[in-house]
Amino acid sequence: MTRVFSGVQPTGEGPHIGNYIGAFRRWVELQDTQDECFYCVVDLHAMTVPWEPESLAEGVRRTAATLIATGIDPERSVLFVQSDVPEHTELAWILICLSRMGELGRMTQFKDKSRGGEAESIGAGLFVYPSLMAADVLTYRADRVPVGDDQRQHLELMRDLAIRFNRKFGETFPVPEAVIGRQGARIMSLDDPTEKMSKSSGRPASAIGMLDDLPSVRKKIARAVTDSGSTVAYGPEHPAVSNLLDILAAVTGESTPELVARLEGQGYARLKADLADAVVAVLEPFQTRYAELIGDPAMLDKVLDEGADKARAVAGPTMALVRERVGLRSGVLR
Ligand code: TRP
User: Fold this and answer.
1) What is the DSSP letter of 207?
2) Which atom of ligand 1 is least distant from the CA of 148?
3) Residue 183: pLDDT band with limits 50, 70, 90
4) Are 29 and 102 part of one and the same domain?
5) SS3 for 39?
6) Is 285 domain-assigned?
């Protein structure tokens, strides 16, 4: 039996098409091929940078609604919010104690975020972020973790922590395996194909938001930068057009060679028109479903409460075992 676990931070900006292609769409596919999937909105990770209470709560609801609207089925997957399951923080503390200053300090994400003038005043949560992430997965003793390429190093640390725990305290956790997206899962900006698509770029034309109104989606695609020349071709010499082809391939399920064969010699206008139609065909039903979910907070809460119950049913026994193994009293659990 394989168990999948993945997490997503609630974001204020809302997800873009790159998040959908690189993550959520794959999560949906895994529901069909794996035995059990746990998908978690990691609100505690969002506290590693300064936050506002209302926007955190709002971000959690929006992210949960997004996941359901893209096709995560709360009947088949366990969809829940990290802070609803206290075992995550409890195991995180133990894993923080097993993590080494050196290995945490080597994480490139930490180094990037802690650079600059304010390095002295950033929160310590950013430093132990990967230990909490390890706790997320190990709490469920999951075997497979679909993540983006930027999480590779965190996954390595997670594996090291699982191995370290098992050596010292006895075989407790499977060593989780990263499932990194295939090439093409890395979607670049529409206005700069050398930069990853992101909503925090400050340039609205660079990312297609999942909740952008459809006419403006068409406009952004029509205005996307292309390469010099006019041939539809795929490869490193054609970064802008390759990115458009990657998005089209991802949303239609066609391969890039198939698309090139079909669109070659037709100019960029055809490619962009096809891309706009294909993206709108994905966004339209998504947005309808999303609006229903966000418009019914009681229903959304009920779904998340049920998810938390299912998650706790797995997390509780893991923590009981961990407490015993590491030498903590388990009085309250008896
Ligand atoms: N750090 C991950 C990211 O930024 C999110 C995350 C938190 C996660 N806990 C996780 C991903 C556990 C996979 C498994 O994308």
Assistant:
1) -
2) 15
3) low
4) yes
5) strand
6) yes
